[in-house]
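User: Please predict structures.

Assistant: First:
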Amino acid sequence: MGRCLPRFRKDGRDVQHDGSYKRLFGHRRMVQDLLQGFIREPWVAELDFSTLERVQGAQVSEDLQERQQDLVWKVRWGEKELYLYLLLEFQSTPDPWMALRVLVYVGLLLQWLVRELGLKAGDRLPPVLPLVLYNGLRPWGAALKMSELIIPVPGLERFQPGLEYRLIDEQRYDTASLAGLRNLVAALFRLEQSRGPEDVQTVVAPLSEWLGSPETRELQRDFVTWLTRVLLPSRISGETVPEVDKLQEFQSMLEQNVIDWTRDWKQQGLEEGRREGRQEGEAALLLLLLERRFGPLGAAVEERIAGADAEQLLVWGERLLAAEDLEEVFEPA
C-alpha cells in the first residue's frame, strides 16, 4: 500500500543543498537558534530547549529507502508532558507542490508516532510544526496551504485538508538586520547572501569565536565542510578549494586567495545574472500570452509563474498552444 504514495523528485542542486543543511541542522544549537531567531511567536518562549532532541528513525519520507535521512526534532512545551515535533525540509528551488509534500510527510510522521508512542483509542496526537527553509533567489510563489491547491467547490471546503507549513525564505532577511543577531542561523543566511570573499570573511570571524568551545567542535567542522564543499564551489566554479578542518584555517585560506576568488566570484555572478535575466524574460512573455488568450490573470497565477524554473515555463508555454482554458495550462502532468 505504501508504494502508492506520490513521489517528489529533486534535482542535483536540491539534493546537495538538502544534504548539507541536514548536517548543520542535525545540531541542537542550530535548531534552537532557528526557532528563537526566526519564529516570532509567543509560544516559542514556552519551549524548554534543554529537552530539544533529534528523533532518530522517524519515518516521514515517501521513499522507504530515504526514511533514515528525515530530519525531525522534538522539544517539550514548558513544564507540561507535551512535546512539539519539528519537521524540517530544505529547498533551493521553488516547488509548487510543497504543501502536498508536507501533508504527506506530516501524515507519515503522525502514523509513525502512533506506533512508536503506543497510542491507543482516546489518546491524542502531539502537535507537529512543518518548517521549510528556502535559500533560492527566485520568489517562492508556491502555495503555503494545502487548501490553495484544491479546486474550491461550495459545500465541500470543510472536507478538504487545510494543512499549512511555515516558510523561512532566507532572501527576505536583509543583511543589516541579520548582522545584529548573535545567532548561528543568521550567520548561515548572511553567508548565503554573500557577494564576495570579503563578505564571507566578515561573517566567519565572529562565527569562529562562537564555535570555539570543545562542545561545538563538530558543528564548526560541519560549517567548514559546507563552506568548502557547497558555498565556495557554487561561487567560484572551476577552482579547487583546499580541505580544512577549522574556521581559523578557512579564514587564512580566504586571505591567501581573496584577489583571485573575488574575480571568479564576480564572473560567476555575471553568468548567473544573465541566466536569471533570460528566465525573467521568459516568465514575462508567458504572462503576456496568457493575458491575451484568457484575459486578466490573478495574483496567484502571477506568483506561480514568477516562482517557476525555466523547464516548467517551457512546459506551460507548450500547453498554452492547445489549452482551452487557464486551468488546462497548469494542470498536473
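Second:
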Amino acid sequence: MDWILDERTECWSVLTTLTMREYLELVRDAHANQGGISGQRDVLKTTTAKRIRERMVNDIRAGALLPPVVIGAVVDDSSFEKLPKKNAKSVRDFLPPDGRSLSIIDGMQRTGAMMEAIDADVSVKDRKIRVEFWLAQSVRAMIYRMLVLNTGQVPWSLGRQLSVVFEPLLKEVQANVPTLDKVFTPNSPGRRRGPAQYSSDVLVELYLAFSLRKTATEAKEALSEEFSRLDFVENVSEKNFQKHFYSALRLMTELDIAFSRFEAAKGQRQGRQIFDSQPARIGFMAAIAQHALGRPGLDRRPKDRNSRMAEVVEDGKKLVSKLNSLAPEKVGKFLALEVLSEVLQKRVGQVGRFERGVFFDAFKVLIEERFQLADMEPGWRAS
C-alpha cells in the first residue's frame, strides 16, 4: 500500500490493489441498506455509452487494467491520528467499521462494468484492480476532493454530487447540531410533527443554499450551474465553512423551537408553520450565508467571515432567549403571522420562487437589524 498525505485537504491517499471480488464485496457491504450504490449516476443509456460500456466489459474479460476506482471515507479523530498504517494487512484495518461511511467518488461506470464482466465470466473475479482510498477527518474535505476530482467529467448536478457523500454528511450534521430533534431518511421515514424535525433531503438542500448563498439551489442554465460549482468549491475549501454551516443550522433549529411555542386557534397560522416551509428554511440559511460569507462572486476574507458569523449567532441567541422568556401569545405577536399570511396570498406564477424571496428578504432584515425587531412585520413587508 502506498500512503501519501494531501496537505491541502488534510486527507490520506492510499493506493492499493484488490481483486474484483474483494472490491465488489466492499462496495456491496458499504451500500447494502441502500440496495445499491447510493448517490452515483445511473448507468449511462445513450447508444454511444452502451457501446463503450460493452467494450469496457469485453476489455475487462480480456485482461485490461482499469484506471483506479476512488473511494472516500470519513474516519474519527482517534483513528485518523493513527494513520498511516503502512503495515496494514487489509484495507479493513484502516477503513471505518461502518461500511455505510464509504463513498464511491469516482468509478461508478467501471464498477457496473466489473459486475457485468463477472456475471459473464466468473473467473474474472480474481483479476486485480487498483483502488485509491481517500481518508479524511471531515466531510468538508471529502466534498472538496470529490468536486475537484470530478471536474471535466460527465456533468453532475451539485445535489447529486452531495448525495454521494450523503451518509457521512448526515452523520456530521447530527453530531454538530444537537438541537435537531429528528432527521428522517429513506431508511427511517417520518413526518414532521414538531420543531427541529427535518428530512435528510431538506438538510442536503439547506447545505447547498448556504454554500451557494442564494435561494435558487437548482440552476437550470449550464453557465449558472458552472458558476455555482465554482462558488461551491471555493466555499468548501475554506476550513471554517463547515463550522459556519452547522452554526447557522443550529440557530435555525433554536428559532424553530422558539417560534413553535405559539399555538394559534384552529384554522390560523401556527408558529411552527414558519419552518414547516422549505422556502423559509432556505431563505433563512441563504440570508445568513450572504451576510457572513458575502454575495456570490464577492467573497469575504476568512477573518471577516468568522467575525460576522459569530455576531449573527450571538445576536440570534439573544432573540431566542427573549422569545423563550415570553408568554406564548407574545411570541405570536412578535411573529406577526397575519401580515405574513397577507403577503403570501399574492398571486404569482412561480409560487416557490416567490416564497423563497419573501423569507430571504425577511430574514435579511432581521439579521441587518441584529435580531432586535419589535416584531416581524418589517421583515414580511420587505419584499
